[in-house]
Amino acid sequence: xxxxxxxxxxxxxxxxxxxxxxxxxxxxxxxxxxxxxxxxxxxxxxxxxxxxxxxxxxxxxxxxxxxxxxxxxxxxxxxxxxxxxxxxxxxxxxxxxxxxxxxxxxxxxxxxxxxxxxxxxxxxxxxxxxxxxxxxxxxxxxxxxxxxxxxxxxx
Length: 155
Description:
The protein is an alpha+beta fold. The protein has 3 helices and 4 strands, in the order αααββββ. It is about 15% helix and about 35% strand. Strand 1 and strand 2 form a beta hairpin. The mean pLDDT is about 90.
């Protein structure tokens, strides 16, 4: 039996019943927050096709090369949601995503805007800012595992 893998989006659910059905196209995100979580998970598994398909056409980049990106995503915190429910046509999700890059913990803060077209939510754009901090080898790992950084994500 394969062990259940926690969903990268931080929902506490397993990936197979949380973001995977949305990323694979088996179901649509019902809310802007659900789309945000699935997009974060898609970044962690480097699924650029899903990311492009869930991006609003008017702001979508021509391509997205995640294989050239050496960062490791380690956590997502949803801070606020405004509108974006199943009966809305627009909404915002404010979040902080944590990632490691060259031994530094980076925080990406974003207030993302989403639009709904028919029964599908799309990422439109967002206001972002970021910050970095050095993670000490003996500090707790920023992924939330409870292990020391040197025994976890720094490997």
